[in-house]
Amino acid sequence: MSDKDERSELDKFDTRLKQAQETSIAPRGLKAPTNEPPKGLGLALRCGADLVSGLAVGVGIGYALDTYVFDTKPWLMVLFFFLGAAAGIMNVFRTVQGLGLAVGYKDTPPRQTGKDDNLKD
Predict the structure, then answer these.
(1) Residue 74, preceding bond cis, omega within 30 degrees?
(2) Are the CB atoms for 44 and 66 separated by under 8 Å?
(3) Is the pLDDT of residue 118 over 60?
(4) pLDDT greater than 90 at residue 97
(5) What is the 3-state secondary structure (H, E, C) of the chain?
(6) Alpha-carbon distance 114 to 64, whole Å?
(7) Mean pLDDT, rounded, of the chain
(8) What angle do CA 22, 31, 97 make, to 5 degrees?
(9) Distance, first Cα to last Cα, the chain
(10) Separation of alpha carbons 76 and 56, rounded Å
(11) What pLDDT score was predicted for residue 35?
(12) Cα-based distances in Å from 13 to 1, 9, 16, 20
């Protein structure tokens, strides 16, 4: 198969894909997913769910380790309560900052060196 044949097949596929994306409708009138951060009530519910789930997972792990592994009631449960709270707060922070599912923190913008091109001498 030659390079032109592959190129034309890709172009045909690209046009079919664009047509399908333009005519597709989200189920039940819902909007298609976007990369916008949540707003309003959605943001509040997500923050609450992040906090509660962090605490629940932390307390669950601490309780399981205390009860079934080390028999150190309640010390590991208290420790993992605080670790779960910290994880929940960190998730809320990442949600509010708009990091989404990105790993780590936002990169700082690069510093400009030299003169600003917009300024006149």
Answers:
(1) yes
(2) no
(3) no
(4) no
(5) CCHHHHHHHHHHHHHHHHHHHHHCCCHHHCCCCCCCCCCCHHHHHHHHHHHHHHHHHHHHHHHHHHHHHHCCCCHHHHHHHHHHHHHHHHHHHHHHHCCCCCCCCCCCCCCCCCCCCCCCC
(6) 59
(7) 78
(8) 115
(9) 59
(10) 14
(11) 54
(12) 17, 6, 5, 10
Residue 54: how many other CB atoms lie within 10 Å: 21
Crossing angle of helices 41-64/75-97, nearest 10°?
160
**Please, are residues 92 and 50 in contact by the beta-carbon 8 Å criterion?**
yes
0.70 exceeded by pTM: no
pLDDT tens digits along 4-60 = 777 888 888 999 888 887 776 655 545 555 556 567 888 889 899 999 999 999 999
Note the residue count of the chain.
121
Identify residue 30 by its one-letter amino acid code: L
How many CB atoms are located within 10 Å of the residue 113 CB? Answer: 5
